[in-house]
Amino acid sequence: xxxxxxxxxxxxxxxxxxxxxxxxxxxxxxxxxxxxxxxxxxxxxxxxxxxxxxxxxxxxxxxxxxxxxxxxxxxxxxxxxxxxxxxxxxxxxxxxxxxxxxxxxxxxxxxxxxxxxxxxxxxxxxxxxxxxxxxxxxxxxxxxxxxxxxxxxxxxxxxxxxxxxxxxxxxxxxxxxxxxxxxxxxxxxxxxxxxxxxxxxxxxxxxxxxxxxxxxxxxxxxxxxxxxxxxxxxxxxxxxxxxxxxxxxx
Length: 250
Known about the structure:
The two termini are 32 Å apart. This protein has helices at residues 3-17, 19-22, 24-33, 39-49, 64-71, 84-97, 134-144, 200-209, and strands at 54-58, 76-81, 101-105, 118-124, 145-156, 182-184, 194-196, 213-220, 242-248. It has one domain (3-248): Rossmann fold (3-Layer(aba) Sandwich), CATH 3.40.50. It is built from 8 helices and 9 strands. The protein is 33% helix and 22% strand.
């Protein structure tokens, strides 16, 4: 991966993150509900969050998930995102709501945090597509999480970039392939950015080879995000749109 690609991707994400400022009050109202976590996330994370873990959220974005994690039991959340715009808006929302959430602006990996600082590393919802080196990412997760601690990923299914947004029928885009290494995003929020396309097998393999033990893997028909004003046929429950991965450091 070239440095030019990294800089271009970061610029695109900084621009897209301005939405978090333009829609600040709307997102603040959403954060107050504490409902950013999906039903699948709440079910799988419930027993872990009851132990009041310290959570590190890699690629934390708008931070709504962080507020929800606290509301469901987390003692504190540290969010890391390489958009200074996103980090600033998330920190402001957390302060307004009195949530124990702190934020760091940094490119990953590695996260600029001490070793074994997290009982739970949480990530996903459009995060892994920004990781050009998934092996380095997994190794950094292991560095961050305590022994006995967990990694939880709730992410778009690797098949999703192949789906068209046609509303009348489910179809596969002819310009993309499941085993392509990367593609250029042509929709919001990352229009023009290079996204890395990791297969489900690759994600599982790097997690296991980094030293984590996979406890559970689920695939879901529901997307974690729907483009406004569109009801794509690919979201009608016939295809996998997200997956949840729970792993533990022995």
